[in-house]
Amino acid sequence: MVSRGFLDPLKAHFKDPEVFAVSPKLYYWDMKSFNYGMHMGKFKDGYLNLWNEAETGNSDKVSQTSPTVFAVGGAMCFRKKDFLWMGGFDDIYRPNCWEDIDVSYRAQKRGLKVLYEPNSIMYHKGAATLNYVRHKEIKNELLFMWKNLRDNNMVLSHFNNLPKFLLKGRHSTRLTFLIGYVWALNYIIPALVNRFKEFRYAEVKDKRVLDRSLLYYRNFMRNNFVHSDKKTVLLITPFIPYPLNSGGKIRMYNLYKRLSKNYDIVLLSLAHHEKDSEYAKSNSMKDIFKEIHLIDRQTKVNEFLFPNRYRHSFSSFLIEKLNEIQGRLSIDLAHIESNELLYLTRFVKHIPIVYTEHDISILSPHKSYYKKNTRYVLPGIIDYMKIVHSHNSFYKNLDKIIVLSKEDMRVVRVFSPNSDFSYVPTGVDIEHFEFKDKTGRDKSLIFVGHYPHYPNEEAAVYFCRKIFPLIKKLIPEATVKLVGSGPTENVLRLSSIKGVEVIGDVPDVKPYLHNASLFVCASRVDIGSYGYRDTCCIYNARLLRDRCGKRL
Question: What is the mean pLDDT of the chain?
């Protein structure tokens, strides 16, 4: 039995071509007792556990469209084209049970959506013609896992725990589990054949399919069973993105300034200076971030495979704060903005993770942006291998990788072909950096960079010592200003060269860009993005590159 107009809310979702199936809210035949709502799932201790909103004890609180692990077979509306594409229900689940879970799960693994629509209501006389048989359910649970689970950790955990289930049972007596297990073995060949067939279609990880509905309901509970109008993003950074004295800070700050209009942003960052806490209290930061958490204590890490280059960013206090935030707030997405913080992916629970790869040259033995120590060649090679290993390991925990240059995209495609990545070029805040015409009378050049970043230091030194003297021969009145945060000793020494002025930290680079005629775009060792190159174009400042058009 159905409520009046129950089909309309279901049909409306199929305007989205990615929707495969929608399931309504179900009450028992008495029209009062809650039967089924959204379904959730979690793989734990070697077995897949599924449960329903009705089993949480919180009654039918979900009142808007939500993700669900599966649509109920006796009450699902699905797209016929996709149903046939997936081959329909799998015969291995006969006589019944888990065939609806299987087709819904496979659809989500293929990148389609399965939804729960509480505004469509049905009244269900459950199992009116069937008897509950636990060993039949065990048989189909096992077949489902053997056929569909591809996560290596899940598969290994399941088979490690299987002897225990056979000895003690699993939500059943030992004999009941054994009967279900033997029954499942009779279908192992068709299950593995279908597993192989499904392999080429699977796009989404098992963890992502299960986490989607689990995270939704967990955040719903933490929000006192109120559907939030705004999603919450946890931004994790290696340094506070303020003041705006480096390209990385400017990019992050302006990105989240715009995102804060539609999302609640929580910042978790390492702190490096006493003034960082003052910057965090500024209106410029409070206007963007709902909460700001700074961790100023790094701790030792005893893992042999942990790269030495990343040890200065390791902090058990950072991990503790991350766990505390996840336990207290309704976080919908975690965004990590540094390769040195990728180790935190091990501690992000059920939340999709987006990672921005600022400069993939870290994976190159020759073009890495870390300064090489020629005195310790062998340790450097070993640490490089650790970096590659850690990236390969942590990339598997990511749901999305953002690259900032086409070269980075090419490397990521080769290094991790199964990762989901997108190229998002760095833009310019044209409200702040307005267009200015140039007269050409001022024979000044400008180099902008965060100088503790080795490629910037190396490029500035190379330019001032090798290239600038050639320019001075042609244009004696030419000058170059080195603007940017944290000038190193090597950069400060460049002020001894005639015509070179080390400006260092400035509140805003805008007036310096405005006065310069040429912008020096010199970088010899990294890949990454070049935000100031685009900025100088807004100012109509010409780029100085070598005669072949390549980076100096």
Answer: 89
